[in-house]
Amino acid sequence: MKNIEVVFSMISLDSKDSFTTIGEIKGNRIIFEDSENNKHYVIINNESIEYYKRGSMKMKYVFNLKHNTVGTYEIDSSRFEFVIKTKKLDIEDNQIIVEYNLLLNDELVNQSTLLIKYS
User: Fold this and answer.
1) CA-to-CA distance for 23 and 32, rounded, in angstroms?
2) Which of 8, 53, 90, 93 is buried most, with the most CB atoms less than 10 Å from its CB?
3) Residue 119 pLDDT > 80, yes or no?
4) Which residues contact 87 (CB under 8 A, 6 or more apart)?
5) d(Cα 39, Cα 58) in Å, to the nearest integer?
6) Sorting pLDDT into bands at 50, 70 and 90, what band is 1?
7) What is the pLDDT of residues 47-94, one digit of tens each?
8) How many Å apart are CA 84 and CA 39, to the nearest integer?
9) CATH superfamily of 2-118
């Protein structure tokens, strides 16, 4: 386990969230918390990224350029399943960039960019 600085940014059609924090890296897993004590996990695989957020809501998104994936978002007693269409997936030089679309019932509900830098 190694402590790292994490710069996180999530930009979508209707919102933007960014912050810098201290996290840790364990093998292929990056773990960090935001100012609202939500815990974020990023798992770097050969051809995909898994992104989890736990706290006031639960999220699980899997990004893969080769095929669409399913993402879940749970808040209060509501649960949503999205189809994730990954448009860009770059993992290099301690930086992850993901551009993706979220679809619900074959309709576009959001376009987002996820940027994570760590050192």
Assistant:
1) 4
2) 8
3) yes
4) 99, 100, 101
5) 10
6) confident
7) 999 999 999 899 999 999 999 999 999 999 999 999 999 999 999 889
8) 21
9) Calycin beta-barrel core domain (2.40.128.20)
Mean pLDDT of the chain: 95
Domain map of the chain by residue range? 2-118
Q: Which amino acid is at 48?
A: S
| Residue 60 tokens, joined | 């699980």
- Is the pTM higher than 0.85? yes
Determine what percent of the chain falls in helix, strand and coil, rounding each to the nearest 5: 0, 75, 25
Q: Which residue has the tokens 């402590």?
A: 3
